[in-house]
Write a structure and sequence with these properties.
Blueprint lengths: L13 E10 L4 E11 L2 E6 L9 E4 L4 E4 L1 E6 L8 H4 L4 H17 L2 E6 L5 H8 L7 E4 L3 E3 L23 E3 L3 H13 L4 E5 L18 H13 L3 E8 H9 L4 E7 L2 H10 L2 E3 L2 H14 L3 H23 L3 E2 L15 H6 L5 H7 L2 H6 L17 E4 L8 H4 L1 H4 E6 L2 E5 L3
Parallel strand pairs: 1-4, 1-5, 6-7, 7-8, 9-10, 11-12, 12-13, 13-14, 14-15
Antiparallel strand pairs: 1-2, 2-3, 5-16, 16-17, 17-18
Length: 417
């Protein structure tokens, strides 16, 4: 098994006793278990494993222990909802905001996140080396956008482009430019390459129902990602944009609020993944203006808000690989856990938890490393009051139900003896 990113050696061994261990894949609980952890990895799980003499011990008191959560659609550096204005800020200031965002994510039980626009190798490394406290960051660098697309933040009256370090997008046009842009992201260690397949809410000049990039441009990015044993994530809302991306080899679709029955068939045929982000529209509607979302973007929210839940139900009933994502910005980050409550309106609690553990790990190429409680996996663990396999509210309200957070074998927080 490859080395688990963020695992640290040298920390004292940890033992969690009297645990009810959740197997999310099978939807079962096993009571009276002891977990033995060393070097950031789960060593043993059982009724009476051998315990190191110099270990720190915690009693779960019969509470449920689940794998650390994965949020597969975040922007950890998004300190404001006006991402294009943020691109003009000092990178030191943006990084300071991001460190606070990530610390709070970890406190809510998210031990791994996939950043789909903005974070780079420096952010990932800062967390891995313990310089910043936060979830393990699987990053894609800057998202690729055509001129006038979802990653182009220029107002209609502006013609010059700036290549700023804090911009979430990179404007590129034509096959040679998109190949070079994809190769640049991959050169920096990106785990995926994101492309804008349709218009979006936060961008000032494109329509949500537009399609972006040509077939040849998308295929070029897919070709470069596959050559590097990586994959392409595609921002898309409408069935037209989603279906086109899936046919051309895009592996994960971000948002997908307006998918149709053909979309479901294509997801299944290509074993692709859907990453809905429902809570962001709920909060953009309620708080977008106060969080800095420009007026033009506020007017786009209604287009995708109502359709999102119906799309999620369509995908779930159709057997699509569904992954947990939130896409929150600025002051809206604290609502991250509310995504569990929203999804539970149309999905069973266990399937919602699957989307934030087992299925998310498979999308990230970390199956068996995260999202599971088993020997050899990362010791990313949560101790909760209640059974999240039956009640999604357990995860939707971490301030009430989350008792302990362990990341890579280190106790981040705990209210247990």
């Amino acid at each position: 098994m490859p080395e688990i990113p963020g695992a640290r050696t040298g920390d004292e061994p940890l033992v969690i006793r009297e645990a009810t261990v959740a197997d999310v894949a099978t939807g079962t609980l096993t009571e009276s278990q002891t977990l033995v952890i060393a070097d950031g990895v789960i060593q043993e799980v059982g009724a009476s494993p051998a315990v190191p003499s110099a270990a720190r011990e915690i009693s779960a008191g019969g509470r449920v222990v689940i794998p650390g959560l994965v949020d597969a659609h975040v922007h950890v550096l998004a300190g404001t909802a006006d991402l294009f204005r943020q691109a003009e800020e000092s990178p030191f200031y943006v990084g300071a905001q991001g460190s606070q965002v990530m610390r709070s994510m970890l406190a809510r039980g998210f031990t791994t996140v996939r950043d789909v626009g903005g974070a780079d190798h420096g952010v990932s490394r800062a967390v891995a080396e313990g310089l910043w406290e936060g979830p393990r960051v699987v990053f894609g660098g800057r998202a690729l956008s055509p001129t006038g697309g979802h990653g182009d933040g220029r107002a209609p009256s502006r013609f010059a482009t700036d290549d700023t370090c804090c911009d979430i997008g990179l404007v590129c046009d034509g096959e040679p430019e998109v190949r070079r842009a994809a190769r640049h992201q991959l050169r920096t260690g990106a785990h995926h390459v994101k492309v804008m397949l349709s218009g979006g809410v936060a961008s000032p000049t494109d329509r949500v129902d537009s399609v972006q990039f040509s077939d040849a441009e998308i295929s070029a990015v897919v070709d470069e990602a596959q050559a590097a044993n990586r994959y392409v994530a595609g921002h898309a809302y409408t069935a037209r944009a989603v279906n086109r991306g899936l046919r051309l080899g895009v592996r994960s679709i971000e948002h997908g609020n307006l998918i149709d029955d053909e979309s479901v068939e294509l997801f299944r045929a290509h074993d692709a993944y859907l990453v809905p982000t429902l809570v962001t529209y709920d909060r953009l509607k309620a708080e977008g203006a106060a969080a800095g979302l420009p007026r033009a973007s506020q007017e786009k929210v209604d287009v995708v808000l109502e359709a999102g839940l119906r799309a999620l139900e369509r995908a779930w009933r159709g057997g699509v690989n569904i992954v947990f994502g939130t896409d929150l910005l600025g002051a809206m980050h604290p609502h991250q856990s509310a995504e569990f409550r929203i999804r539970a309106e149309v999905m069973p609690a266990r399937d919602v938890l699957l989307s934030a553990t087992v299925t998310a790990a498979r999308l990230l190429g970390m199956e068996g490393q995260i999202g599971v409680i088993a020997p050899g996996a990362a010791a990313d663990l949560l101790v909760v009051d209640g059974d999240p396999l039956e009640d999604a509210a357990v995860l939707a309200d971490p301030s009430r139900h989350l008792r302990t957070v362990v990341q890579a074998g280190r106790v981040v927080s705990s209210s247990l003896p």
